[in-house]
Amino acid sequence: MSQNPGGQFPPQQQYDPNRQGQWPQQQWSEQQWPQQQGRPQQPPQKKGLSTKVKVLLLVAALVVVGGGIGLIFLMKAAAGPEKQAGKLEVGNCALLTGTGKETDAVKTPCGAPNTPYMVSTVGIDRGEWNCSEGFYRVAIPTPMRGEGVALCLGLNGQPGACYDDIESKTPPKLVDCGKARLKVLTTVPANVMGTGCPDETTKTLTYTSYLDPRFKSSTICFGKP
Questions:
Q1: What is the helix (H) or strand (E) element at residue 74, kind and residue range?
Q2: 70-81 b/e with 16+ CB inside 10 Å = b?
Q3: Which of 57, 103, 63, 62 has the alpha carbon at shortest distance from 80?
Q4: How many helices, marked H, and strands, marked E, lie in the chain?
Q5: Which of 172, 176, 141, 150 is nearest to 162 (CA)?
């Protein structure tokens, strides 16, 4: 009888139903996992924009925004400074500055000696329009900023102010009293029972406020300078 050169077989274990965990658990390494089961597959990742593309898009956006802002500044520069006439309200006192397209009306203190006018109406210049009798029509152009400003002005009536012609449709300018025809002696509240002007008065100009109480009804008394 020949001997087995391969050694002894390990003794076979007998199955015992009352003994749990009797059979050894076979351990599978990652390399030995059965191929048919396979490992869980991850969904393919979506490729985003590269850093270079993102930088280019950001630069393009900044160029567009910067160009728009630059265009706004360019248009404002072409339009010139915003006119102050649009900020005037009824009852404000003002003086006129500039000529032609540069004409503007600037708010000034009513008690100042160089303040010739008081605002009775502020509107939008849409072409032909008129002011009530005794008031002066002024159109303030606002190039490249839309429609201009329409003003109706009355004389401020500051005592000592001198004028040549108060009958014109445009606001009369303050002039040197040594060369003027009329000088404001005083201004009194409008009175239907009488003017209330002094005896040396040679001309009167009465303003009546019908729509807006901010423009005070008054009578300006003029005499010789």
A1: helix 51-79
A2: eeeeeeeeeeee
A3: 103
A4: 1, 9
A5: 176
The SS3 call for residue 16 is: coil
Q: From residue 125, give the alpha-carbon distance in Å to each of 67, 142, 172.
A: 33, 10, 21
Distance of CA 186 to the CA centre of its chain: 42
Non-local CB neighbours of 97 within 8 Å, separated by 6+ positions: 103, 104, 105, 106
Q: What is the pLDDT of residues 58-106, one digit of tens each?
A: 766 665 655 556 544 444 444 456 899 999 999 999 999 998 889 999 9
Burial of 208 (0-12, 13-18, 19+ CB in 10 A): middle
pTM of the model: 0.62
**Could you tell me how many residues make up the chain?**
225
Rg (CA), the chain: 48
Beta-ladder partners of 104 = 97
| Residue partners of 109: CB distance under 8 A and separation at least 6 | 93, 115
Question: Which tens digits make up the pLDDT trace of 170-181?
Answer: 899 999 999 899
How confident is the model at residue 38, as a pLDDT?
47
Residue 59's pLDDT is what? 60
